[in-house]
């Protein structure tokens, strides 16, 4: 089975228009676009045959091709990254592929997160969708609480059952807790990493279904699966000391540049 990474990227965004073309300075001051850094990170994943940028905007396509990526144009009617991945897989003729969606705003995704996801998908016989999760310590939970106090929606949390199958994803912090935690103390909260692995069957099903009620309310594409009782495997991944943050809002630029400098990523 082919392993295919698709990076969906769109120019239009309510919170951050033009986000994929946002310049980010690395450890030595060199600036690269967000989509460039995400593609570089995705290209480090072992055992993947192909990495493709899928977009509906010629500016993003031209930027991707300029730094050497394979890029394809998809429809502007795609409502989210999963729909764009489904269309891209169809265009690419990837009929028998494990498709990995690394969203275009995730330049700090360590390659082993994706490798762990691939391993889980290939070793759980009935898995159709999988996604990584990270346990939050007190420091991380404090960061999430701070974004909420500032009226920002960055960072999704998840709760799952005893078999680590997702029960719900939310932009609210779930489960609710009013305890004060020390910086390195474990908390009951799990942070959801915006990466997905799908079978082609799951992607094809998704592309034929309308958005669900909870998906529309939360603005979280993965809820379409849960609303139709399609299980999502939650794969706990180890950051190995690496900091992880997604670029959801303009305020995240400085934080990501700080992490790039701390990790000595050029």
Number of strands: 12
Alpha-carbon Rg, integer? 17 Å
Shape, please?
globular
- Decide which structural class fits the backbone: alpha/beta
Portion in strands: 15-25%
Which secondary structure elements does this structure contain, and how are they paired or packed?
Layout: E1 2-9, E2 23-25, E3 31-33, H1 34-42, E4 50-55, H2 58-66, E5 70-73, H3 81-91, E6 97-102, H4 111-123, E7 129-137, H5 138-149, E8 156-160, E9 166-170, E10 186-192, E11 195-199, H6 200-208, H7 213-218, H8 223-227, E12 233-236, H9 252-262
Parallel strand pairs: 1-4, 1-6, 4-5, 7-12
Antiparallel strand pairs: 2-3, 6-11, 7-10, 7-11, 8-9, 8-10
Helix pairs in contact: 3-6
Offer a few descriptive terms:
globular; ten-stranded mixed sheet; alpha/beta; 266 residues
Describe what this molecule looks like in 3D.
With 266 residues, this protein is an alpha/beta fold. It is built from nine helices and twelve strands. Helix 3 packs across helix 6.
């Amino acid at each position: 089975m082919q392993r295919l990474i698709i990076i969906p990227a769109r120019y239009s965004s309510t919170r951050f228009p033009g986000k994929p073309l946002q310049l980010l300075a690395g450890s030595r001051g060199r600036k690269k676009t967000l989509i460039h850094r995400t593609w570089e990170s995705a290209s480090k994943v072992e055992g993947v045959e192909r990495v493709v940028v899928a977009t509906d905007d010629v500016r993003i396509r031209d930027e991707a091709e300029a730094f050497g990526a394979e890029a394809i144009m998809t429809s502007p009617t795609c409502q989210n990254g999963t729909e764009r991945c489904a269309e891209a897989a169809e265009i690419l003729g990837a009929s028998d592929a494990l498709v990995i969606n690394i969203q275009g705003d995730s330049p700090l995704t360590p390659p082993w997160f994706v490798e762990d996801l691939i391993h889980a998908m290939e070793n759980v016989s009935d898995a159709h969708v999988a996604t990584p999760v990270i346990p939050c310590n007190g420091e991380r939970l404090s960061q999430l609480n701070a974004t909420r106090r500032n009226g920002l929606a960055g960072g999704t949390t998840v709760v799952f059952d005893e078999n680590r199958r997702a029960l719900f994803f939310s932009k609210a912090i779930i489960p609710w807790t009013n305890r004060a935690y020390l910086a390195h103390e474990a908390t009951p909260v799990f942070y959801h990493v915006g990466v997905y692995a799908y079978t082609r069957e799951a992607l094809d099903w998704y592309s034929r279904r309308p958005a669900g009620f909870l998906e529309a309310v939360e603005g979280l594409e993965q809820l379409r699966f849960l609303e139709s009782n399609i299980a999502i495997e939650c794969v706990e991944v180890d950051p190995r000391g690496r900091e992880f943050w997604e670029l959801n809002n303009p305020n995240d630029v400085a934080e990501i540049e700080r992490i790039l400098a701390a990790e000595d990523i050029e």
